[in-house]
Specification:
With 207 residues, the protein is mostly helical. 72% of the residues lie in helices and 3% in strands.
Length: 207
């Protein structure tokens, strides 16, 4: 971004540290998703971010630090999008529906995040828990309480909030993962309503 001075010269507006960090993370997300951890080039990331390679290392001491920060950023953005979507909704059923649709919409907009998760799993190989599941586990009690509220309302056939939460979360995560790695690339926004209908109404007609 640039501005024009009083004497007609162009002066480049300096980005804040947060903006440069964000540019680096955005560039790194695309490069890591496409090339994986080992084949991702730090100079290419710097070029895509519009900064020098030294600037990248001032923000992230190692390539591993940048990789983990990129995944952390992706999961935080997912969490923020879902939280924003359900803000102000009191009905537990509508909270779960809205959460599911917002989750699917995120991966429709950022499909490369699935690739990041796959590369992270390959890189960790059992050394530590993937960040997606670290965040999921940290919020599990909150979501299980929402499921329990729905059960307590008398609208559910089952009475196990843990089973309900596992079914919803596994369906959501599994759907975006299979859609990406299978190459189907179906519209997740359109899939969401069908999956929710299947989840909450079941497959078979009532006897």
């Amino acid at each position: 971004m640039s501005t024009t001075t009083s004497d007609g010269h162009t002066k480049r507006k300096r980005k804040s540290a947060d903006q440069r960090r964000g540019d680096i993370l955005a560039a790194a997300g695309g490069i890591f998703a496409e090339h994986g951890f080992h084949h991702a080039d730090m100079q290419l990331i710097a070029d895509c971010a519009g900064v020098g390679k030294g600037t990248v290392y001032r923000f992230f001491a190692t390539k591993d630090d940048l990789f983990r920060a990129t995944i952390d950023d992706a999961v935080c953005r997912l969490t923020a999008q879902v939280d924003s979507a359900i803000e102000g909704i009191d009905d537990s059923y509508q909270v779960l529906r809205t959460c599911f649709k917002s989750y699917m919409a995120y991966f429709q907009q950022y499909p490369e995040v699935v690739d990041l998760f796959i590369h992270e799993q390959a890189e960790l190989r059992g050394k530590s828990k993937p960040l997606y599941f670290v965040y999921s586990d940290a919020r599990r009690n909150n979501w299980q309480a929402i499921c329990q509220n729905l059960i307590d309302s008398g609208r559910c056939r089952i009475n196990d909030s843990q089973l309900m939460l596992d079914a919803i979360s596994n369906l959501a995560y599994g759907s975006v993962l299979v859609n990406r790695i299978s190459g189907r690339n179906a519209c997740l926004d359109e899939m969401a309503d069908g999956l929710l209908d299947l989840l909450f109404k079941g497959i078979l007609e009532a006897p």
